[in-house]
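$ ./design --mode recover --in tokens.txt
reading tokens...
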């Protein structure tokens, strides 16, 4: 159980939620695991729930406290709310900003600042940890380029220019990505990003990781009452969770890329875990996907200190915290959206 930004996160499995007076009580096999006053809560996020009492749901609906249910893997299941009060205002604000490209750019640039900043510090950490295995001068040069692009992004008010700057940063970062593969280099190499379809082992894993991250982010956005399909940087397209793609930008490198690199460098995957289809697409075997998913769920349990909140949380809660921060910004509680800046 963790309270962040007036939201209670319940991550223990097989927990039943009940009401006692003005308190939420967590029960497991009739044993009380904890209790917390409800009067300061805005939402309750429960992962892998056993159930919640009708009394608790009725109380929360009356007090405008949402209860959101997710699977243990983070897939969104349902959101229990009372009368539409704050949620409709939040979504209308989201839609108004999305319709205005200038205002959208001012929001979206913080996502891109977070992405480029995190890419920069991935490179800086590699040069610190493996100075004899990478070209330090090249990494430092790319890091400098990324710092210069961040300055331009911070003042950008045009979506097309913002996409161009993000593209420049991605090209610079991808130039040294292959050097971060420190093991199994004969079987795993990265020359460029290929998406549809992925044409090598590394791109196959990156695509899978980005899909998982996008799903986690969409679930987190639904949990706070935002529309995952209406974005600011990524524009409307039927069936595309544009806001989830927006918000995951800052986590691509630090969350997904580093995860894929760790699987390669720790030899958790090998060349035998992939095969190429007739159209050239490289896909993972069923067994490899199962191991990938198991490792992904394990990574989500690892603890970090959130750079904005200064509190220890699991990696799996980062999408939820960033979604909460975005919702607070849209409501006017924050002057600007604080991106996740890893270092």
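writing sequence...
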């Amino acid at each position: 159980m963790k309270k962040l930004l007036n939201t209670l996160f319940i991550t223990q499995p097989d927990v039943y939620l009940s009401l006692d007076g003005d308190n939420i009580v967590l029960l497991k096999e009739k044993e009380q695991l904890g209790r917390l006053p409800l009067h300061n809560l805005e939402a309750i996020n429960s992962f892998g729930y056993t159930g919640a009492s009708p009394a608790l749901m009725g109380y929360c609906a009356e007090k405008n406290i949402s209860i959101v249910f997710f699977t243990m893997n983070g897939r969104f299941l349902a959101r229990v709310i009372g009368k539409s009060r704050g949620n409709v205002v939040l979504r209308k604000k989201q839609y108004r900003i999305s319709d205005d490209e200038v205002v959208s750019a001012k929001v979206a640039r913080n996502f891109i600042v977070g992405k480029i900043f995190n890419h920069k510090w991935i490179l800086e950490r590699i040069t610190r940890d493996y100075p004899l295995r990478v070209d330090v001068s090249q990494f430092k040069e790319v890091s400098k380029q990324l710092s210069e692009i961040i300055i331009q992004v911070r003042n950008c008010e045009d979506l097309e220019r913002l996409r161009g700057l993000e593209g420049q940063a991605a090209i610079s970062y991808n130039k040294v990505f292959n050097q971060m593969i420190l093991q199994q280099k004969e079987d795993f190499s990265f020359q460029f990003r290929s998406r549809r379809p992925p044409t090598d082992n590394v791109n196959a894993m990156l695509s899978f990781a980005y899909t998982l991250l996008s799903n986690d982010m969409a679930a987190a956005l639904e949990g706070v009452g935002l529309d995952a399909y209406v974005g600011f940087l990524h524009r409307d397209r039927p069936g595309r969770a544009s806001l989830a793609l927006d918000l995951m930008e800052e986590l691509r490198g630090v969350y997904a890329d580093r995860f894929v690199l760790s699987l390669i460098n720790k030899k958790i995957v090998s060349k035998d875990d992939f095969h190429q289809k007739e159209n050239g697409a490289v896909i993972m075997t069923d067994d490899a996907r199962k191991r990938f998913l198991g490792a992904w769920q394990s990574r989500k349990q690892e603890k970090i200190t959130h750079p904005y909140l200064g509190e220890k949380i699991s990696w799996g809660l980062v999408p939820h915290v960033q979604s909460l921060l975005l919702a607070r910004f849209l409501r006017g509680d924050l002057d600007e959206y604080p991106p996740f800046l890893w270092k």
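exit 0
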